[in-house]
Design brief:
heterodimer; A: mainly alpha; Rossmann fold; 7 helices; 3 strands; B: alpha+beta; 2 domains; two-stranded antiparallel ribbon
Amino acid sequence: MLTADMAKLSARARDRFRAEHIGIIFQMFNLLPYGTVLDNVLLPLSFAPSRRARAAKRGSVRGEARRLLSALGLEEALFDGPPAATLSVGQQQRVAAARALIGAPEIVLADEPTSALDAGRQAAFLDLLFDQAGAAGASLIMVSHDERLAVQFDRVAALADIVRSAT
Amino acid sequence: MVVLRLALRSLCSRWLTALLTMAAIALSVALFLGVEKVRSGARESFADTISGTDLIVGARSGDIQLLLYSVFRIGNATSNISWRSYREIAARPEVAWIVPLSLGDSHRGFRVLGTDEAYFRHYRYRRGQGLTFASGKPFADLFDAVLGADVADTLGYRMGDPIVVDHGIGAFSFSKHEDKPFRVAGILSKTGTPVDRSVHISLKAIEAIHVDWRSGGRAPGRGRTADEVRRMDLTPNAITAALIGLKSRLAVFRLQRFVNEYRQEALSAVMPGVALQSLWHLVGTAETALRAVSLMVVLTALLGMATMILTALNERRREMAILRSVGARPATILGMLVAEAGLLTFVGVAAGYALVQGTLVLLRGHIDSRFGLYLTIDPPTAYEIATLAAIVAAGCLAGLLPGWRAYRRSLADGMTVRT
């Protein structure tokens, strides 16, 4: 995977590559509002056959989705129940994390996933995220304004250092 | 599977617009199918009304007019055939049977037809079916009447009931032949033709009720009673038209020429099939126009659907972007929108079809008795299936427009929340 040059791939292959290898947690979570929790978590697998195959290794993909959601601390009752739009921010965040982690993609990109939480819950959520990313064997790349979080990561890069055209 | 389920859920979250769109499509399809149904039903009704008659003879006029007033009881004759001419034509060697028809009076909106017993023997409809009596028998007495099925049904007449013939035609007549009432002697079985809406009396009875009438009004002075009239010579002076059956169909042109070139009187003879053909030719343009209009309505409904999906696209930018972010390709999004359009159209078409069939089941009897249009409930014809499939295909095509727009939008679009 690391040998692939994404810039050289066709648009179609790039879409496929992204779906297979990268799970993304957005700042605003971006769940489909009318979908159930399970639908949202299972959605990426529709576009990534090898992630689906990996997710199915321990039984069914639904079972894997349930395991991830439980590990992230979401109540069982919500899995197949109300549409995602009715969940609280904290709950939506866990669903977004489960969606990024399912099928064990090599890279998990997180864009300020904790900005909506207070400090105590931030730490708890990060711990969960680290645990699950570790279990899936994924590298976690996170963008954040909060420098206190930096100590928990192996590598830290300031945005100014990596953006060449930064003014 | 998940994508499909989410697409359905997305549609359900916009259920009101989706429902209205489907209703518009359903109504337009129902209109189209209804027009088709009425069109073919009218054609069949007309074609089925007369069968086995080789020539219709009447005063000289257009083929269609003669056919309309003599067989369909639509419109009026311009003039009559004299009894003498009628006798002469009847005596021709080619003629196997002849049925005189005398029109011009009515009973509470139903036409009264003066004829003779030959009518019940020789009149044929729908591939050669003959008239049968639900009860009673042809007229025996001068003041006997035989009712068509709808007349008896609508007015609630039973055997032996007295009825009064109105002078002239029209639902409300001011002059009535109330001095000479008739008795219901027979009721015919339902035929699905204008016979159902006719009151049949004998030619002599037509003469009898008009004995004291001069040019549309009752002559002044003492009218003669029914009993006095019975003793009179009631041979008619004239009749309106006559139906003729030939011994050999080969003779049809010979007799037609004889009638058309008849010296003493201006007469014309038409073959029912030929007159029907010219009628179709006449109404063909109107039929085409009607069909074109109903197809336009279908087209409008499909455009409305495309507009609805296109408008919703703005609200759904985020949904599309989310799908893209989890790996959906632009083609998947295009497919999703086209499938949505196809599904809406398909359900709309199915609902429209069900609507027409349901309406037919509910209103068939009413349409038959009110308009004399006998509509059948059939499985869809090949033409209908082809048209409905074409409409669904056109619906998918209409979905391409919003689909293409969504396709063109970039991944980043709509991702940041602007609400």
